Amino acid sequence: MPASNKLLRFGWLSSLSRAQYPNRKTLRRRAPEANEKPCYVQQSHVIEVNGVFVGAAISTREGFRFIAVDPHVRAANGRCFATLAEARRYLAQLFRAKKLAAANA
């Protein structure tokens, strides 16, 4: 989401003066694309493997979407899982495999 849309969404734009943000009248909320589905975020869950924070699973209507923070699990960034247990299992396996490969290299 562009910064201008974030400003409109959270109402910050109205508090800015014209000197700080001269084009504030020209900003409008972006219209959704035809193939774009709305994202309904309900809750986020921390995903840890062996005490290491690797990312967060965001619950949506489709299941759980993973957001990676650790480079070992970056390949799974944006992937959807049906259940939280499935996400944790897959990410633990991926993390251990990548960490082992990095240690042997």
Output the number of helix runs: 2
Characterize the largest beta sheet: strand count, sense, and whether it forms a barrel.
Answer: 4 strands, antiparallel
Tertiary shape: elongated
Count of domains? 2
For the termini, the CA-CA separation is 38 Å
DSSP strand count: 4
User: What does the average pLDDT come to?
Assistant: 77
Helix content: 25-40%
Task: Report the radius of gyration as a whole number of Å.
Answer: 19 Å
Strand content: 15-25%
Structural class: alpha+beta
Strand order of the main beta sheet, please? 1-2-3-4
H/E element string?
HEEEEH
Low-pLDDT residue intervals, each spanning 5 or more residues: 6-14
Question: What does this protein look like?
Answer:
Residues 6-14 have low confidence and may be disordered. The longest helix is centred in the last third of the chain and has 21 residues, at 84-104. This protein has 105 residues and is α+β, with helices and mostly antiparallel strands. The chain has 2 domains: 1-31, no CATH class; 34-104. Strands 1-2-3-4 form a 4-stranded antiparallel β-sheet, with helices on one face. The chain is elongated and about 50 Å long. Helices cover 28% and strands 23% of the residues.
